[in-house]
Write a structure and sequence with these properties.
The complex is a heterotrimer.
Chain A: H1 2-24, H2 26-29, H3 67-103, H4 105-120, H5 123-134, H6 138-164, H7 168-176, H8 180-216, H9 228-236, H10 244-271
Helix pairs in contact in A: 1-3, 1-10, 3-4, 3-6, 3-8, 3-10, 4-6, 5-6, 6-8, 7-8, 8-9, 8-10, 9-10
Chain B: E1 15-25, E2 31-42, E3 47-51, H1 58-65, E4 73-78, E5 81-82, H2 88-94, E6 98-101, H3 115-126, H4 136-149, H5 166-178, E7 184-188, H6 196-213, E8 216-221, H7 224-230, E9 233-238, E10 241-247, H8 248-253, H9 258-266, H10 272-283
Parallel strand pairs in B: 3-8, 3-9, 6-7, 7-8
Antiparallel strand pairs in B: 1-2, 1-4, 4-5, 9-10
Chain C: E1 11-22, E2 25-37, E3 42-46, H1 53-60, E4 69-78, E5 81-82, H2 88-94, E6 99-102, H3 106-109, H4 116-127, H5 132-145, H6 151-155, H7 164-176, E7 182-186, H8 194-211, E8 214-219, H9 222-228, E9 231-236, E10 239-245, H10 246-251, H11 256-264
Helix pairs in contact in C: 4-5, 4-7, 5-7, 7-8
Classes of the chains: A mainly alpha, B alpha/beta, C alpha/beta.
Organism (chain A): Streptomyces endocoffeicus
Family (chain A): Belongs to the binding-protein-dependent transport system permease family.
Subcellular location (chain A): Cell membrane
């Protein structure tokens, strides 16, 4: 059973590695310029379908752009947005959750009230409002998705800290004279990290999809930047006739979030001192 | 961090609790007086047992005397220093002198830390020379010594807590408590979660360490048989108040308070079967009838 | 000492083996345990953690988690019927009805979201098909019987509203309401204060006398054994290392392990 799990984790890690390579070396790997339009070769099917050609292994979209190249280039934005947003939200959420949970009192009440208010807002609506205010652009999208996601981290960390802080080893550390900051860093953070990782894997996937939604609405990254989201949006119109335009970016998105989730699980097992005992 | 606490005036008790009270406000503004006007002293080198059942306030009292909770009224003096008037930094420095061993050997250690770092925490906290990578070898050596002093091999320090039994964990807890060379150790039910055979070994160890290091113990327990074995004096707590306090032999041998007598009577005795079977055949009460 | 009529035991365990097939390899928790409990007696099963005493007792009602638990051998006879061979459905009729259990931790053995009265009544409703009102009345009566003051009120309360001692009494009431022939109490007083422990032990002795119940008391505390048991079985590393009447085991222990256990048991010495 552990072998199967290990193999699965290894495969997931492989997918992620491929993805990073694709993102970094996109100009070298992509057969075509992702923006180049070949209007004569519009909506060419993939190579294995009738009418497909090796020139466009995964076919072309409605403007005759090479789908494979676009998927490869799209991984850049998707990864950046997903990881960037999760990192930002994770750091902000963890810090807030740690302080709120450990200190309690008024900082806790204020922070959590704020979180409640934010939760009451549909997050996409909030993102729209902020993008509308800040303007679109890659970094603004990261900022927005990070900011709308911190609440989940903060709540989980806080509730975990609330139970951890009554643990004897925290009492013991306090009795020893360890400062609050050190207690948070040494005793609380390592024990909430696995939970953070779990949320992060979900959040990365969600952020990639959210970026797609924003791009779909025209509020994400600039139109000329290729993203899986904008590809999905474009392809939706042609799903009935030319499925490949939407399916390949969708597949990439699904594979990525799956791989991230599996890797996250494996990571949690590895970091638990109880789990990797032989 | 190494604020020197001025050496205290000669021959005061090590620990003085004076009129100590703690009131908790629960939901709906209900108030409970967990500790109610407790005055106690602990002399240098002695073992004072705090005896009480759940709800007696003994846990709150230990948290107060360790300075982990602020009293509603009264003072705690450790080696002459009133904990309430110390700054946060001074209080932290003072903590090197008083350590605690808690009851549950499973929750008293961070599961993600190796034994080295668990035992070394007081060292690193109170002595800057043990910090950093270059001090690592010296730190490991010191942790090894501490482990050996509680009867564990030094090489076990690279393991994680879950790899140890309850009794071994409690030894690690004791090693940690000794790391900063404290004068006072608060032992909060240190053996009640252990099997009897292990319990008695840990008690022996505690007695031996006290003799070696001249330690002062505050020993919290509900087990009067254990208390009898280890304590010089006993304070019996009930509903936050000390109902009786005195020499162990006097309190257990000639209890003055009815609650102390009730506690004593409730202790299961390994020779009880004699009187029980005797009384059974004598009075013929139904307790032992078997079959039809 | 009480003498036992040469009748068949109510509960008899013969050469029981219990294994746990864990990912890290099999653990033989119980390695050939045999013991017998007769009608109306209290049998104490003594051992430290890891002795296999709890796995043995849980095996009686097949309550060990399966998997990883398997029973490679042995018989558990209740009035001559092998419980280990019984299909799950039939075994369910035995649970709580013929054999009831009380566990150590009254905090986790009660459902926090169920009123106390309902939990006590559950046994009657599942086994006897009792009406809601009938079961309720019976539950209140059971709470009263185990010495819970104001049972009507308590039946309507939730577990968290009760003290540890009261919760353990509720557990006992739950076990007793089905009028079981055998009560297995696994460390029933370990989590309790001494004064409360005393009350619970007295209660168990009283109930046993009144109902002629057989009590199997699992404990690590030899003091508790001396206070309550007729006969003792000492377990170590999954085996029975010694058995006999309380007086035999306490006065002339044959095994070194039993002697060590007796020596380690803290006892109050007379001081005056």
């Amino acid at each position: 059973m552990t072998v199967v799990r290990n193999r699965l984790a290894l495969a997931a890690l492989g997918v992620l590695a491929l993805l990073v390579i694709a993102a970094v070396f996109a100009p070298l790997l992509a057969p075509d310029d992702p923006a180049e339009q070949q209007l004569l070769a519009r909506l060419t099917p993939p190579v294995w379908e009738g009418g497909g050609s090796l020139a466009h292994p995964l076919g072309t979209d409605q403007l005759g752009r090479d789908v494979l190249s676009r998927v490869i280039y799209g991984s850049r934005v998707s990864l950046l947005v997903g990881i960037g947003a999760a990192l930002l939200a994770g750091v902000v959420g963890a810090v807030c959750g740690l302080f709120a949970g450990f200190r309690g009192g008024w900082p806790d009440r204020i922070l959590m009230r704020f979180a409640d208010i934010q939760l009451a807002f549909p997050s996409l609506l909030l993102a729209l409002a902020i993008v509308g205010f800040l303007g679109s652009g890659l970094w603004n999208v990261v900022l927005v998705l990070g900011f709308t996601g911190w609440v989940a981290y903060a709540r989980v960390v806080r509730s975990e800290v609330l139970s951890l802080r009554t643990r004897d080893y925290v009492t013991q550390a306090r009795a020893t004279g360890v400062t609050d900051l050190t207690i948070m860093r040494r005793h609380l953070l390592p024990n909430v990290l696995p939970h953070l990782a779990t949320i992060a894997t979900l959040h990365i996937a969600a952020a990639i999809v959210a970026e797609a939604s924003l791009s779909y609405l025209g509020l994400g990254v600039p139109k000329e930047t290729v993203t899986w989201g904008s590809m999905l949006a474009d392809g939706q119109l042609y799903l009935g006739t030319s499925w490949w335009v939407a399916v390949f970016p969708g597949l990439a998105l699904m594979l990525t979030s799956l791989a991230i989730n599996i890797t996250g699980d494996a990571l949690r097992d590895v970091t638990d001192p109880k789990a990797y005992r032989r | 961090m190494t604020t020197a606490v001025p050496k205290t005036l000669a021959k005061r008790p090590m620990l003085e609790l004076d009129g100590l009270s703690k009131e908790f406000t629960g939901p709906g503004a209900t108030r409970t007086l967990a500790v109610d006007d407790v005055t106690l002293t602990v002399e240098d080198g002695e073992t004072l047992a705090l005896v009480g059942e759940s709800g007696s306030g003994k846990t709150t009292l230990t948290r107060l005397l360790l300075g982990l909770l602020d009293p509603t009224a009264g003072t705690v003096r450790f080696e002459g220093h009133d904990l309430a008037v110390l700054s946060a930094a001074e209080l932290r420095a003072l903590r090197a002198g008083m350590q605690v061993v808690l009851q549950d050997p499973y929750s008293s250690m961070n599961p993600r830390m190796r034994v080295t770092d668990i035992v070394a925490e007081p060292l690193v906290t109170h002595d800057v020379t043990y910090r950093g990578r270059r001090a690592r070898a010296r730190l490991r050596e010191r942790v090894g010594e501490l482990l050996e002093s509680v009867g564990l091999p030094a090489r076990l320090q690279d393991r994680y807590p879950h790899e140890f039994s309850g009794g071994q964990r409690q030894r690690i807890s004791i090693a940690r408590a000794l790391a900063s060379s404290p004068r006072l150790v608060v032992l909060d039910e240190p053996t009640s979660a252990l099997d009897v055979s292990v319990q008695s070994q840990v008690l022996d160890l505690l007695v031996e360490l006290q003799r070696q290091h001249g330690l002062t113990y505050v020993f919290v327990s509900h087990n009067l048989a254990v208390v009898q074995r280890i304590a010089d004096r006993v304070a019996v707590l009930r509903r936050g108040r000390v109902v009786e306090c005195g020499e162990t032999a006097a309190v257990l041998g000639a209890p003055r308070h009815p609650y102390t007598r009730e506690l004593l009577a409730a202790v299961p005795r390994p020779d009880a079967y004699r009187t029980r079977t005797g009384s059974r055949t004598g009075t013929g009460n139904g307790g032992g009838t078997t079959g039809e | 000492m009480t003498t036992h009529a040469p009748q068949a035991p109510v509960l008899e365990i013969r050469d029981l083996h219990v294994d746990f097939r864990l990912a890290t390899g099999p653990v033989h928790a119980v390695r050939g345990v045999s013991l017998a409990a007769h009608a109306g007696e209290t049998l104490a099963v003594v051992g430290e953690s890891g002795s296999g005493k709890s796995a043995t007792m849980l095996a009686v009602l097949r309550l060990n988690p399966e998997p990883p638990c398997v029973y490679p051998g042995g018989e558990i006879l209740l009035d001559g019927r092998d419980l280990l061979a019984l299909p799950e459905k039939r075994l369910r009729e035995v649970r709580g009805n013929d054999v009831a259990m009380v566990f150590q931790d009254p905090m986790t053995s009660l459902d926090p979201l169920q009123r106390v009265g309902n939990q006590v009544a559950e046994v009657l409703r599942t086994h006897r098909g009792a009406s809601r009102a009938g079961a309720r009345a019976e539950a209140v009566r059971a709470l009263d019987e185990v010495g819970i003051p104001d049972p009507e009120l308590r039946a309507r309360q939730y577990p968290h509203e009760l003290s540890g001692g009261l919760r353990q009494r509720v557990m006992i009431a739950t076990a007793l309401v089905g009028r079981p022939r055998v009560l297995i109490a696994d460390e029933p007083t370990t989590a309790l204060d001494v004064t409360v422990q005393r009350q619970i032990l007295d209660l168990l002795a009283d109930l046993r006398a009144r109902h002629g119940m057989t009590v199997v008391l699992v404990t690590h505390d030899l003091g508790v054994v001396a206070e309550t048991a007729d006969r003792v079985v000492v377990m170590n590393s999954g085996r029975v290392v010694e058995h006999g009447t309380v007086a035999e085991v306490f006065e002339t222990p044959r095994e070194q392990y039993t002697r060590d256990l007796l020596a380690a048991t803290p006892r109050l010495e007379p001081t005056s």
